[in-house]
Structures are given as C-alpha cells and as structure tokens.
Amino acid sequence: MKTEHIIQKLYVYNLHQDDPHKCSSAKLIRFKLATPLRGHLYYRRKSIFLNPFAKEVLWAGDRSIIEHYGMIVIDCSWSRAIVIFSKKFPGLNLRLPILLAANPVNYGHSQKLSSVEALAAAVYIIGYKKEAQKLLSIFKWGPSFIQLNQEPLEEYSLAHNREDMERIEKEFFHSLSDLSSDR
Fold first, then answer.
1. Residue 102 in contact with residue 141, Cβ under 8 Å?
2. pTM (2 decimals)?
3. Would you state the pLDDT for residue 111?
C-alpha cells in the first residue's frame, strides 16, 4: 500500500478542548496528514477507534482493517478523557500498548500520548514505519517519540497476536503493565 493511501485512512475527531496552538491533530490536518471528521461518527462504524481505555490492544494483525476502513483518534483533553472515552464509540475500540510520551506537556509519562503520537505509534505497529516518522516530523519534538520508544515499538510491530502484545508490554513496562490490566 502506498504511503499516501495509509495517510488518507487516518481520521481525527477533534473536540477542541485543548489550546489550539498546541493541538497536534490540528497541525496534522493542516499538513494534510490526517482527515478531520465532523458530525456523527456512526458512518465510520467499521473503523478502528484508538481508545486509551479499551480492553483489547492494537496489534499488527489489525493492519487490513485500518487499510480498508481507517483509524480514528479522538482529540480531547486528558483531564476529560475518562468521561469522553466512557462512551462507546462505533467500530473496533482498541488501545495502544504502553508507550512513553515525548510531547512537551507529558514527556516521559506512560500512555499520555498526544494525538500524533497515538496515530504514529499505531501506524508504526502495523508496519508503516516511514509513515509514522513522517507524521512526527512536523513537530520539533516528534522524532524523539520513536527514539524514546524504539525497542518496544519494534517488538510490538513483530508480535504474532494480542497475547504477544501484552507479554511484550510486561517485559518492557513491568511496573506499568498493571495499569493496562486494570482497564
């Protein structure tokens, strides 16, 4: 699949709860690296929704779903995330495996990723590593996300199933893996 095609399958539903000057999804849209969604989300019911509180983890085997139906990130404030994501979004709700944020607001915190970090991580895991780097390249701090998470991202991309993903999470983030099992 061509780079342009996977980029066309990345969608953002922006709730406009953060500072617009720091909003990574707005910048992705301006650079035509994601497509904004407006209105009702139910017409995207076959897409993958990145939901940080979902039980199941995204893995490389989800690639064909993303290639056909796309992937959606909900851009909202982390202070409101529990309320926002307690709603059931249509489609397949999946969480990312544990990763560390590199964005200036949440640097080093696990699972407090910006929208661009979430999309880049997902794209990397399903095998589009150059595209993940392209998404991050428009931010000064962007390349440090892959540097900070290089080993786990590489292992996640090689996992054979969701159980492997959870095993890899525990290997890299054993002290944090209890967070993902509490979901």
1. yes
2. 0.88
3. 85
Among the ranges given (75-89, 123-137, 147-161, 166-180), the one the predictor scored with the smallest mean pLDDT: 75-89
Amino acid at 87: K
Sign of CA dihedral 76, 77, 81, 87: negative
- Residue 5 banded pLDDT, cuts 50, 70, 90: confident
Report DSSP letters for the chain, one per residue: --HHHHHHTEEEEE---S-TTT-HHHHHHHTTSSEE--S-SGGGTTSEEE-TT-SSBP-GGGHHHHHHH-EEEEE--GGGHHHHHTS--SSEEEBPPP-B--STTTTT-BT---HHHHHHHHHHHTT-HHHHHHHHTTSTTHHHHHHHHHHHHHHHHH-SSHHHHHHHHHHH-TTTHHHHHT-
What the block records as the tokens of 163 is: 């159980």
At 180 the pLDDT is 46
In which domain, by residue range, is 152 found? 3-181
Asked whether 89 and 44 are in contact (CB, 8 A), the reply is no
Give the chain's domain count. Answer: 1
